[in-house]
């Protein structure tokens, strides 16, 4: 039973346009959410996070939105760049328990 | 800090052989996690330690898998005997609070 779901295995976006990656979760006890980015042959690296008491967090071209009532979060990248091509993992956590990850979405930004 | 260090980066072994994966967490971090990445399951948690003590090993697939953390700066994940279905990328991660930092992973191939 997956607690964190990324239903789109892949996404292709034109350079300069917006990339929107989606994530759904089932456990209402999660109190923070993170996005990780992973390049081939490397470990996942932290990108951006949001606390459950907020509905938006922005860092440069990256914005994460949280809709608690829908148990849904999304990552917006604008404008998208070819270097953003990677696998993006959504993760959720509470307290000191380990992060629970989704299966990832492979983003391809086409020049 | 050099980050989380894993060794080896790649391991190819024959079915039935013992495999040992190694991890050095970031100094000062008190939690260590072993994750496995596959196409089917994404990033799944195998086991995690807090202050060198195993807290939850419910993600360990079978008795063939074992993990130890003899001190705060070293952990091993052992598979004995290995099987072809164990082929995956194994990640070690460490954290203090919240965000987890990942190593570059060990790509295991069991033939």
Per-chain topology:
The complex is a heterodimer of chains A (111) and B (111).
Chain A: E1 4-5, E2 10-14, E3 19-25, E4 32-38, E5 45-51, E6 56-59, E7 62-67, E8 72-77, E9 86-93, E10 100-101, E11 105-110
Parallel strand pairs in A: 2-11
Antiparallel strand pairs in A: 1-3, 3-8, 4-5, 4-9, 6-7, 7-8, 9-10, 9-11
Chain B: E1 5-7, E2 10-13, E3 19-24, E4 31-38, E5 42-50, E6 53-56, E7 65-71, E8 74-79, E9 88-95, E10 101-102, E11 106-110
Parallel strand pairs in B: 2-11
Antiparallel strand pairs in B: 1-3, 3-8, 4-5, 4-9, 5-6, 7-8, 9-10, 9-11
**What share of the residues of chain A lie within helices?**
under 10%
Q: How many β-strands of chain A, per DSSP?
A: 11
How many individual β-strands of chain B?
Answer: 11
Number of distinct helices of chain A: 0
Rg calculated over all Cα atoms of chain B: 13 Å
How large, in whole angstroms, is the Cα Rg of chain A? 13 Å
Mean pLDDT of chain B: 94
List low-pLDDT spans of chain B.
none
Given as residue ranges, the uncertain stretches of chain A (5+ residues, pLDDT < 50) are none
What gross morphology of chain B would you assign?
globular
Biggest sheet character of chain A: 6 strands, mixed
Q: Strand percentage of chain A, roughly?
A: over 45%
Q: What oligomeric arrangement do these chains adopt?
A: heterodimer
Question: What is the element string of chain A, with H for helices and E for strands?
Answer: EEEEEEEEEEE
Helix content of chain B: under 10%
Give the CA-based shape of chain A.
globular
Structural class of chain B: mainly beta
Summarize the largest interface: chains and residue counts: A-B, 21 and 23 residues
What does this 3D model show about the protein?
The complex is a heterodimer of chains A (111) and B (111). Chain A has 111 residues and is an all-beta fold. Helix content of chain A is 0%, strand content 54%. In chain A, strand 9 and strand 10 form a beta hairpin. Chain A is globular and about 40 Å long. The termini of chain A are far apart. The mean pLDDT of chain A is 95. Chain B is mainly beta and 111 residues long. In chain B, strands 2, 4, 5, 6, 9, 10 and 11 form a seven-stranded mixed sheet that branches. Chain B has a four-stranded antiparallel sheet with strand order 1-3-8-7, with no helix packed on it. In chain B, a hairpin with a 5-residue loop joins strand 9 (88-95) and strand 10 (101-102). The A-B interface holds A 6, 32, 34, 36, 41-46, 49, 89, 93, 96, 98-104 and B 4, 31, 33, 35, 41-45, 48, 50, 56, 91, 93, 97-105.
């Amino acid at each position: 039973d997956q607690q964190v779901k990324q239903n789109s295995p892949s996404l292709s976006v034109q350079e300069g346009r917006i990339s929107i990656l989606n994530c759904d979760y089932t456990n209402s006890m999660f109190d923070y959410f993170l996005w990780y980015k992973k390049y081939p042959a490397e470990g996942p690296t932290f990108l951006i996070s949001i606390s459950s008491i907020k509905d938006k967090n922005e860092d440069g071209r990256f914005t994460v939105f949280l809709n608690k009532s829908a148990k849904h979060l999304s990552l917006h990248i604008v404008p998208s760049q070819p270097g953003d091509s990677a696998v993006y993992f959504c993760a959720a956590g509470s307290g000191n328990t380990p992060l629970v990850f989704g299966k990832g979405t492979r983003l391809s930004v086409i020049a | 800090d050099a980050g989380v260090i894993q060794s080896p980066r790649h391991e190819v072994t024959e079915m039935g052989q013992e495999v040992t994966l190694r991890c050095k967490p970031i100094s000062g971090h008190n939690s260590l996690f072993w994750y496995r990445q596959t196409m089917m399951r994404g990033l799944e948690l195998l086991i995690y330690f807090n202050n060198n003590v195993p807290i939850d090993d419910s993600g360990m697939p079978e008795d063939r898998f074992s993990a130890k953390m003899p001190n705060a700066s070293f952990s091993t994940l052992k598979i004995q005997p290995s099987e072809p279905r164990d082929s995956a990328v194994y990640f070690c991660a460490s954290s203090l609070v919240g965000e987890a930092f990942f190593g570059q992973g060990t790509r295991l191939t069991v033939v």
